[in-house]
Amino acid sequence: MHPRTSAELRIDSLTSLSMDIDGHVRPIHPLWLRERSTESSYRDNLTGQRLMDPSDHDLMLEFRQIERQGPGVIRVQFSDGHQATYLDCDVLTEALRAPGDLDCPSPTSWDSQLPTLPQAKWNANPSQAELMGWLDVFLRFGFIVFKGVPTDERQVLRAASVFGYVRDTNFGPFFDVRSEPNAIDLAYTSLHLDAHTDNPYRSPVPTVQLLHCLANRTTGGLSTLVDGLAVCEALRTRDAQAFRILSTTPVQFRYQDPTTELTDSAPPIELDVLGRVRAIRFSPRLDFVPLLPAEELSAYYQARHTFDRMLRSNEFETRFLLNSGDLLMFDNCRLLHGRTSFDTSEGLRHLQGCYIDIDGPRSLYRVTRRQLAGSRSIAA
User: Is the bond preceding residue 204 a cis peptide, omega within 30 degrees?
Assistant: First the structure.
């Protein structure tokens, strides 16, 4: 989307309203404006929810009278008798919001040349400004590493509660990542793990993962991260056919242990309605493509091969050591994570993890931004 230089709400006549964006005029539909009324007769002041179903409005609704009541303020009377006051800035903000616009910082894609890891010193009771800084970094880069988190058992749950609600799974509210005999998941071994997303077999997939390092007394066990968004966009540019195949071919993901059996199907690359990358589900240990015609399977396997090689390449992967007291929080639907192998005879490598959902940090960002704006307004 090209950057806008100007936007203006215009009263063209007593019964006509339009929006001018960089010289391109777009009429405002009466129904569109009517259902955005904030009058107490139409919208509950406490919840902000409508008091009636907007589908009950007259489909032939018209503007009866539009007048300016002051700078940036208009008063509108509709043909059904409803009258409402609107701020120009509110109407423009609503009109310019694109489908899928989350009203949060836009993602900043990155590769292995990321100069420094997004880091912050942990504070169990952060100020609003401090919290806003953390959230801005997390939402832009898809991850943040907190330093100096107390190495108490279950501390990861307390950290997670700052940003959202813990998502309980068959692994429990939290899980221990360490080498175990008779492990029910390869994560609980000392083996190398390639870039993957967690729980692709689950619906819905947990969208944020936190991993807290309690101990790491080995020379291996480096954490790896890949920005799946950057890889997907590179794949779209370099091999459009592979991108199309991976974003349209449903793949089944499966997990089972003695007490659990989970399965779900989705393309490895999920797109939103505008064709933008929305989520990635990729775990070569767990994916099973259906029995398609031979030529389609050959094309799929070639596309997956290309994607996988990019994910594991030095171009996109970053490696770092999680030390005792470090906590990594990352977007599990955008970033792929893994680790290098390690030798358990050297010492203990013990992480505790848990999941929350991405709407927690996004909501917290919006609320904190609103509160900070209110504080500045009062101070002024």
Answer: yes
